[in-house]
Design a protein that fits this description.
Largest sheet: 3 strands, antiparallel
Mean pLDDT: 88
Number of strands: 3
CATH class: Mainly Beta
Number of domains: 1
Number of helices: 2
């Protein structure tokens, strides 16, 4: 929870434009077979953050997500990371 709270405070797409239509968009909400949801959050300017949520205890190796813009993306939090599991 600590890491999620840190991200919420430090990443504007997670808290700006909560009530605006442009602040949220589904990427994939149909992957029932693997119990995974993907969506994007935007902050009203250039900030974009993608959330990929796996609702199972199984790891999803090489899971592909259609990102909203091209480029290099960085993982900000992964619940399987040792520093998160403490």
């Amino acid at each position: 929870m600590r890491r999620l709270n840190e991200l919420y405070r430090s990443e504007p797409p997670l808290h700006r434009d909560d009530l605006a239509d442009g602040g949220f968009a589904w990427i994939d909400c149909e992957d029932r077979a693997q119990s995974v949801l993907c969506y994007e959050r935007r902050d009203g300017s250039d900030g974009v953050l993608v959330v990929v949520a796996n609702f199972t205890p199984s790891r999803r190796v090489d899971y592909r997500v259609g990102m909203p813009i091209p480029g290099r993306w960085e993982v900000l939090a992964n619940s399987d990371s040792p520093e998160i599991r403490r």
